[in-house]
Amino acid sequence: GNYEVVLGPGCVTNLLLFLCLYGLNGRPVEEGRSFAKVGEQQFDASINLRDDVADQISVGIPFDIEGTPKRRLDLVREGVTSAICHDRRTAKALDTESTGHAVEGGATWGAVPSNLILAAGERSPDDLVGAIGRGILVTDFWYTRILDPRTQVVTGLTRNGAWLVEDGRVSRPVRNLRFTQSYLDALAPGAVRGVGSDLTLVPGGSFGVGPYAVPSLHLASWNF
Length: 224
What we know:
Layout: E1 2-7, H1 9-22, H2 26-31, E2 49-51, E3 73-77, E4 80-81, H3 88-93, H4 106-109, E5 116-118, H5 125-130, E6 134-148, E7 153-166, E8 169-173, E9 178-182, H6 183-186, E10 192-195, E11 200-202, E12 212-214, E13 217-223
Parallel strand pairs: 1-6
Antiparallel strand pairs: 1-13, 2-3, 2-5, 3-4, 6-7, 7-8, 7-9, 10-13, 11-12
């Protein structure tokens, strides 16, 4: 069923990678399979997402594999989709400029951000859990696969610990669960109930990107 969740930074990193790989990326935009609509409120107002190698928390080099200098790129501002990542291929196809996001395999995958930062909130992870009547605390996701890029429906498993939360307290562990959930719906306006203060560097892993700096999130609904 559908449960409120607190997603740890590992889960949030996975969520953001899918949003950027299949949406906020010039390749799927060019091919008409991206959800991204620049200038529209597609996310909750609490979501502020940028790519910035120069931030003091970031780790990386100041240019991409094509030699294009990297610069701060605000992808989402207060829930409004504000930019798309480009490498030289997608920039040429869409008559714009590269944003410095070329990666290995870019001919297939397009432009992928390497230094994402999701702005932290003011609530501790304990406060996020304390706001849940009945829900699930999830540490990490595993074996996630996209089902529909336009709606960002992803299927996957939990791993490394999941716990039932009742009346604001962790009551017991639960077995690993499979989920099928639209990542876009999970972050839609009104769906984000809290953003953690625990900004954490999490390895990006795929495509040689990362680490990403992300906090925990309290979300209104997740379909297990």
